[in-house]
Amino acid sequence: GNILERHNYAATMMRQTSGGVGPTLHRRRGTKKKSSRIKVTQNALLVLMALCLAVFVMGIMVGSRIVPAASTSLDKSSSSVSSPDHIGVDHLLSDRTAGNANEMKEMQNFLRRGAAAAKTEEVAIAEEVAIAEEIEDPANIYPYDLVPESPDHDFRSWSPPGGDRYTEYKDGDDPYVITPSIIAKSDDVARTRREHVKNAMKHAWGGYKKYAFGHDEVAPLNKSYKDGWGGMGTTLVDSLDTLWLMDMKEEFWEARDWVRDHLKSDIHHTVSTFETTIRSLGGLLAAYDWSGDKTFYDKALDLGERLFHAFDNNVLPSSSVNLHTGAAVSRGSTNIAEAGTLQVEFRFLAEVTGQKKFKEKSERAFEALRNLNPDNGLFPYLVSSGATSFRNAVVTFGAMGDSFYEYMLKLWLQGGKKETVYREMWDKSMNGIHDELLKQSNPHGLWYIAETNRGSINPKFDHLVCFMGGALALGAYTDPKGLDSSRAQRDLKTAKALTYTCYQMYARAKTGISPEMVRFTGSNDFHGTPNYYILRPETVESLFILNYLTGDPIYREWGWEIFQSIEKYCKTEIAYASLTNVDEPGSVEDRMESFFLAETLKYLYLLFDPDTEVDILNKHVFNTEAHPTRIFPVPVVKA
Questions:
Q1: Is 455 exposed, middle or buried (0-12, 13-18, 19+ CB in 10 A)?
Q2: Is 275 one of the annotated active-site residues of the chain?
Q3: Which of 81, 137, 472, 625 allows an S-S link to 278, with CB 3.0 to 4.6 Å?
């Protein structure tokens, strides 16, 4: 099809702002416009009356003692006493007799509590007054219903409502004011939906436990198991922190017992370095970090030592390694995702074990990729195993490229934002996206990240690329220049626009579920090719991050639509199945990847969990398989 070009006005705006969908002023929770006008609400009057009453009571209680106290003091040293106007309340309270001490202490605490409450209420009133300035126009008010779900919600009655809705979000704008009361209501609704996602996890875990416990995957149609990853209990290990975060502790400890008694990494099997690191090593490390159970520490160290042989022969790690012999398989070239998506895991392993080799050698590979230094920050995905040159010219943020860019940002976050080289790589690459890859579709102007080959645009967009909505938003909120900087605002606006496009990839399908890939060609924006779905997580990952950062309930609404479609069209008697065609309801396939439990259900649960301990701004970083561990420094464990 024809290559789609940006609208002229958008291209001009992007050049003026170093790329992007155009500048926007983003407002986070509790941050409102300033107003020079004063509005007195009913709550304000009530607080004012309460304060007056408190002052009146204080006057009665304190005033009755001021004169005697002053007289006593004057008797002792009349020449050194200032006028009563300068006698402080704290001084008077300290001079009380023993008989009045308890009474005065209670009064002091009462006053302090009253002042604190008044201050809190004052802030709340100020926020609501400022919000009132913005919502004088009813069109500014968030208009969509927020309705709690009943415990017996019938997913069978769900009918996907189709695409081309919520178009006011298409360009990454903030179309509505999100007040604290709207956020609170959204949180209440989310808690009712959270339970349904937990029930989905219980259903899938129950089928895995009954038919495949200790094996790599459950076969959701044949009620059997598969061992495509070496028979290392991949689904079990990949799901550990999901069980923990969903408070499924009985299932968690039962899985821990299997890890302790049966998980063996010393197997004569050649495994994918990348997949085994992000799924199994990442799963063990996260389980250890959340639970503190040394079983996971021991198993992670053993597996990590064996996987680390992939770094023996070349600057870049080999794509596969035999876990028993340590023999690494090198093809003479590798892709940037495989070579550049091991560092979060091995750096964390180094942090908790004190063995610096894991950090130093894995970072050396990332440094080697950095030294290839493309001018635009966009790396062709195929490189020589010695990291001396690129082996092709294809730039993609989909398969074989995606998580390398993700780890630029996450290594910087993991290290406490101190290793500026990683942040600089990230920002340079994001500039490259906005300058060269960010395109719009025809006719509705959906934004997407294209691929390129020697400057030729390929309007192909993998579902995998949908992680970029969350990544760009997280990068914006942690931008060293500040969230209000033009760069952060550009990235945040693009994050929202991309996520809307990814939502449309779901909404427009007959099942309400996105295909594996779309091409932005033809007369209706895009079409799926291929049209299958393997329970991927990237869109709900971005929905979680954007809701967490902005508080906008719309991301929960889109996520709830996606979850309902999964429940209706992918659920089987024992678990969940993939789809061979998202436009053909019933086209289920006997396949449930471990990342459905590790990522898709976890991100959906976190999307609806306002009470989570996960803190993506200050405490945790997720690896590319959705395993959250703490940022550095982490207390070192003595083996």
A1: exposed
A2: yes
A3: 625
